[in-house]
Amino acid sequence: MIVAVHNFMEINNQLCLQCQKQVRGRVDKKFCDDYCRNNYNNKQNSDQNNYVRKVNNILRRNRRVLERTIQPGENIAKMHRQKLAEAGYDFRYHTHQLLNKKGQAYHFCYDYGYLQLEADWILVVRRKDP
User: How does pLDDT run across 83-120, given as a tens digit for each residue?
Assistant: First the structure.
């Protein structure tokens, strides 16, 4: 028994959301190919991606600044707030906060954080377990 297989794609009435060409294939298909789909989605998300990229770059820089303040083999260091700012630390951005038993807030950039002390001194800490 011979079965004939037709290798054709049905043309539907939809136009590609990116290039406006006729879409071939499934009825619910929105793009003519992967290139158009990727370009469309990249354009849709570009503003959000730029903002997220900017914030992530600031967070990574903050983490590097904190990491450099702690000597190898140590988990804690003390530094003046101005020195951290001069090294490029942006105090407006951090990943999370933790409160200690005294109610003091540690501001973290991933696994490195700091506690604001008196007279603009900062206690920089490295968290052992995330």
Answer: 999 999 999 999 999 999 999 999 999 999 999 999 99
Domain boundaries of the chain, sorted by first residue: 43-126
Euclidean distance between CA atoms 39 and 25, whole angstroms = 19
Strands ordered across the beta sheet of 121-126: 76-80, 121-126, 112-116, 105-109, 96-99
- CA atoms of 83 and 105, how far apart (whole Å): 20
Using CA atoms, how far apart are residues 81 and 13, in angstroms rounded to an integer? 63
DSSP string, 63-125: HHHHHHHSPTT-SEEEEEHHHHHHTT--TT--SEEEE-TT-PEEEEETTEEEEE-GGGEEEEE
Encoding tokens for residue 111?
């696994």
- What pTM did the predictor assign? 0.66
Distance CA 77, CA 68 (A): 10
Q: Could you tell me which residues come within 8 angstroms of residue 79 by beta carbon, excluding any fewer than 6 positions away?
A: 69, 121, 122, 124
